[in-house]
Amino acid sequence: MVLETRHDIRHRPRVLIVGGGFAGTHAAQALGRQPVDVTIVDRRNHFTFQPLLYQVALAVLSPADIASPIRTILRGNSNTEVLMDEVVGFDLAQRKVRLHSGASMPYDYLILATGATHSYFGHSEWAATAPGLKTVEDAIEIRRRVLLAFELAERRKLETGSHPPLNFVVVGGGPTGVELAGAICDITRYYLRRDFRHIDPAKARVLLVEGGPRLLPSYPEHLSVKAGQQLAELGVEIHNHMTVSDVQPGYVIAAGQRIDSVCTLWAAGVQASPLGKMIGVPTDKRGCVHVNATLNPEGHPEIFVCGDLAHFEQNGKQVPGVAQPAMQMGDHAARMIAADLNNQPRPAFRYFDKGDMATIGRMAAVADVKWPFRAELSGFPAWAAWLLVHIYFLIGFRNRLAVLSQWVWNYFTFSSGVRLIYGSQSLPGWPHQPGAEDPAVTPSLDPTARDARATPGTEAPPPDPRAAAD
């Protein structure tokens, strides 16, 4: 069936936006005063401020602090409606999309902004053992696993006198991996230190595994070095030139070596939303749609592809799939629709790069600032800049106030009030089986072989001499 809405009476151009992320919400907001009818479709009812997802994953912020209902964001636009559904197919000839509910929806203009998801490089089976971080649901699952590892260790120590080594392995040295690794060290050394009676969370090991020669490869090299130094000061163990070849419950294999892990997190790659390939136009190896200077797939001027889903090149390089380009693309798509309505030529898109920032931990970050001035910062200045920028871009005054107050409280009290565990009380690979090592690989990173760094109480108890006498 065709979904009938109030648009059919007005006979105004219908703009259908698929995806309620940075690009989709910016496009909808920019079209609020245009003589068009806008429908934004998303399978979730909320916008997520993804740059702060890792703080939800590590129990610093609540999901509500970084998410807002899409309806609330766009309620000031009288020409805009929000539909919670999922696009499952396209009819480009008829200019319709098919929805999961069984309905179809016509459009005059289509803006695709469905973002990206995790890439396990052909090993989708690793997802169950090593979750990535793209959604609120991902963040809550990571929080469950990280906190549960300490809870299970406390219980095991109380019951048996020992517990498996608390090793957290983060795969991927990009911004997400760096932020996750640093945040785990932060909570283990500052926020959990007084909460347990039988284990010492500060003795947990955090290992950051990167296949390339350095962390943050898109940043200037000296900032990558600074990031590595700050992570090392927090206690993160960095292993470059180590490509992961297998992920199993309780361990990963990287460069032929086994690394034991009570919790493995994936930050090594992304791939575009499947919708990019569904529309039947050329895509790159990650599934991103090749677009021209006006963000259109060739031969489809009525379709705009924005954000992580778009493969747009500028100065011979692909524009990165981060928040800044997504917001600018969403705004530009709206401007091009406005140009059509006014019988004006469409302007070419030009990405204005304001710089990149990655937070590492408490008062630690790196920033490659390109606007309003040129600067490369590290340490506290970069952290302060990162804090101000992210507070500024949070949607909604309540969110800004909530996040700022939470950060200030955590900073001075070393406490975090969002350490809630939902769902299952089991972890993949728990309890650890130290004797189950693969003889084909070298156990050079086995923490049980490093007595000087082992967590107190994790050693096997000495044999009872009475048992030998028996």
What does this structure look like?
By secondary structure, this protein is of the alpha/beta class. It has two domains: 143 residues, 3-Layer(bba) Sandwich (FAD/NAD(P)-binding domain), CATH 3.50.50; 243 residues, 3-Layer(bba) Sandwich (FAD/NAD(P)-binding domain). The protein has 13 helices and 26 strands. Strand 14 and strand 15 form a beta hairpin. Helix 2 packs parallel to helix 10. The C terminus is likely disordered.
Label this structure with key terms.
globular, disordered C terminus, FAD/NAD(P)-binding domain, four-stranded parallel beta sheet, single chain, five-stranded parallel beta sheet, 2 domains, 470 residues, alpha/beta, 13 helices
Biggest sheet, strands in spatial order?
5-2-1-9-20
Biggest β-sheet description: 5 strands, parallel
- Our count of helices gives 13
- Beginning-to-end CA distance, first to last residue: 79 Å
Based on Cα principal axes, name the global outline: globular
Mean pLDDT: 88
Structural domain count = 2
